């Protein structure tokens, strides 16, 4: 956010909640596209734990990532009527290390990231998408300053077209895209 506001970068990527918070604070940023139109936010647990739904969190230790993921977790529990006082919650950084090490029974994260780190470490996982519990929020929102969007629409449109072409190319050439990412 700071890099865009200080003109060190023209474009940025943030969560929808961070864009809304910035707007509420009067910062001159605006969203112009969304990468994930279905939320990748989730809770995940080792398959062997038997934890497959939020109601199973009672009596367990849940690791919470900061930011939008924690907010979504809290809304989900409230919506489901689950008493947080019956859950041991701990704050985590990013990555799946705590779940892999057994420090947590359940962790929060992005379904496209941390669960796969856990699988790569040799643990099958249960994934519980917040979207399945009514919290399908946009994520990876592309933004720029209001000035850039208003005064440089060709630049904004060009970036968006290039990104969409890149995604389409990756989808059409999956194996090659994976090789490039791994390099």
What does this structure look like?
The protein has 183 residues and is of the alpha/beta class. The chain has two domains: 2-37 and 139-182, Periplasmic binding protein-like II (D-Maltodextrin-Binding Protein, domain 2); 41-133, Periplasmic binding protein-like II (D-Maltodextrin-Binding Protein, domain 2), CATH 3.40.190. It contains eight helices and eight strands, in the order H-E-H-E-E-E-H-E-H-E-H-E-E-H-H-H. The chain has helices at residues 2-5, 16-24, 68-80, 97-101, 114-120, 146-151, 153-172, 174-182; strands spanning 12-14, 29-36, 41-46, 61-64, 88-91, 106-110, 125-129, 139-145. The strands form two sheets. It has a five-stranded mixed β-sheet, with helices on both faces. A three-stranded antiparallel β-sheet has the order 1-8-2. Helix 7 crosses helix 8 (174-182). The longest helix is centred in the last third of the chain and has 20 residues, at 153-172. It is globular. The model has no long low-confidence stretch (mean pLDDT 92).
Alpha carbon gap, first and last residue: 28 Å
Sheet with most strands:
5 strands, mixed
Per CATH, the architecture of the largest domain is 3-Layer(aba) Sandwich
CATH level-4 homologous superfamily of the largest domain: Periplasmic binding protein-like II
**Strand order, sheet with most strands:** 5-4-6-3-7
Tell me roughly what share of residues is in helical segments: 25-40%
Structural class: alpha/beta
Q: Indicate the CATH topology of the largest domain.
A: D-Maltodextrin-Binding Protein, domain 2
What is the mean pLDDT? 92
CATH uppermost class of the largest domain: Alpha Beta
Computed Rg: 19 Å
Stretches where pLDDT falls below 50 for ≥5 residues?
A: none
| DSSP helical segment count | 8
Could you give the count of β-strands? 8
Estimate nothing, just give the exact number of structural domains: 2
Multimerization status: single chain
Shape designation: globular
How much of the polypeptide forms β-strand, as a percent range?
A: 15-25%
- Secondary-structure element order, N to C: HEHEEEHEHEHEEHHH
């Amino acid at each position: 956010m700071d890099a865009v506001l200080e003109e060190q970068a023209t474009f940025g990527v943030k969560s929808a909640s961070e864009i809304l918070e910035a707007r509420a604070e009067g910062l001159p940023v605006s969203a112009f596209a969304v990468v994930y139109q279905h939320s990748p936010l989730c809770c995940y647990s080792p398959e062997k734990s038997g934890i497959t739904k939020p109601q199973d969190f009672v009596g367990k230790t849940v690791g919470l990532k900061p930011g939008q993921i924690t907010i979504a977790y809290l809304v989900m529990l409230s919506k489901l009527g689950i008493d947080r006082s019956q859950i041991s919650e701990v704050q985590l950084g990013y990555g799946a290390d705590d779940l892999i090490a057994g420090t947590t029974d359940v962790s929060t994260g992005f379904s496209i990231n941390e669960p796969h780190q856990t699988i790569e470490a040799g643990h099958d996982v249960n994934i519980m998408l917040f979207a399945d519990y009514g919290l399908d929020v946009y994520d990876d929102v592309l933004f720029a300053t209001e000035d850039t969007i208003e005064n440089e629409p060709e630049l904004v449109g060009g970036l968006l077209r290039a990104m969409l072409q890149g995604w389409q190319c990756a989808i059409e050439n999956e194996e090659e895209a994976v090789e490039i990412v791994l390099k």
